[in-house]
Amino acid sequence: MKSEVCQRIASGIGQVLECDDLDGYTRVRTPFSYPDGSVIDLFVRDVDGVTTVTDLGETSRWLELNALSEKRTAKQHFLIDCVSRSLGVDIFKGMIEVTTSPALLAEAFTRVAQAAVRVGDISFTFRTRVTGAVADDVEDFLVDRQIENARNATRVGDSGKLWRVDFETRAVQRKALIQVMSTANRGAVSRLTDHAVSAWVDLQPVITDHSFISLFDDTVDVWKPEDYKQLERFSVVAFWSQPDALMEQLAAWEPRPRPTAWVKSSPAATAARYR
């Protein structure tokens, strides 16, 4: 199915795209990106001659992680509705979708991709927004140290949910998944940490040969010790202000059983650990 889907899309838009079969869908890496430079992936599925093109809610998730508030304004809802009507796409439960025939796949694919771009652009209506600067710096860090890496890696969790992780790395036969925890908005902290915890918990049962690393951008004073503690149970906590320590984690990690229970420590000990 993968090659057929890619051929149909390429024949319509004149470009060969990266495709992978993933949990009943064909994941297609588009030439488009969100405002912070993150690549937009779309997903295609054929069932009984009916083709569905969807972003599986990735655009909505990106928008939420870059918002100051969990609630969207009336203006933002209006802009999203305008995108839906002008491009003829369905936006339902956070997912951008088009159902079409196989012959019209390329045209539907283009509309969903354009909708993802335009919905992502709504972030410019936020008072402040997260940029991809820290992730860019992390990528430069990995390249400078000759660590093989893939940005915006996607993995299917134990629940069947698709997760996007900022980096997958391979160093001296050791592999890691890295989630960059970066925001300048205190209001976004809980959503970022909850999302990372959910991802690590769902990925743990199916990915046992990778280290999980939550990399905090501690150059911005928005994090509290409890944020680190929340992620420490399910991942290695690293800090962008300590790149040498991060390098040690990437180079020295070996597979080990995941923790199944939290061992409590005193508040004083926890606070001292993260000073």
Q: pLDDT average, as an integer?
A: 82
Q: What is the CA-based Rg, rounded?
A: 20 Å
Number of strands: 11
Number of helices: 9
Give the H and E element order.
HEEEEHHEEHHEEEHEHEHH
Low-confidence runs: 127-131, 253-275
Distance between the termini: 52 Å
Largest sheet: 6 strands, antiparallel
Task: Provide an overview of this structure.
The protein is of the alpha+beta class and about 280 residues long. The protein has helices spanning about 1-15, 60-65, 75-85, 105-120, 135-145, 190-205, 225-230, 245-250, 265-275, and strands spanning about 20, 25-35, 40-45, 50-55, 90, 95-100, 150-155, 160-170, 175-180, 210-215, 235-240. The strands form two sheets. The protein has a six-stranded antiparallel β-sheet. The longest helix has 16 residues, at about 105-120. It is globular. About 30% of the residues are buried. Mean pLDDT is about 80; it is low at about 125-130 and about 255-275.
Task: Looking at this protein, list some descriptive labels.
275 residues, alpha+beta, 5-stranded mixed β-sheet, 27% strand, disordered C terminus
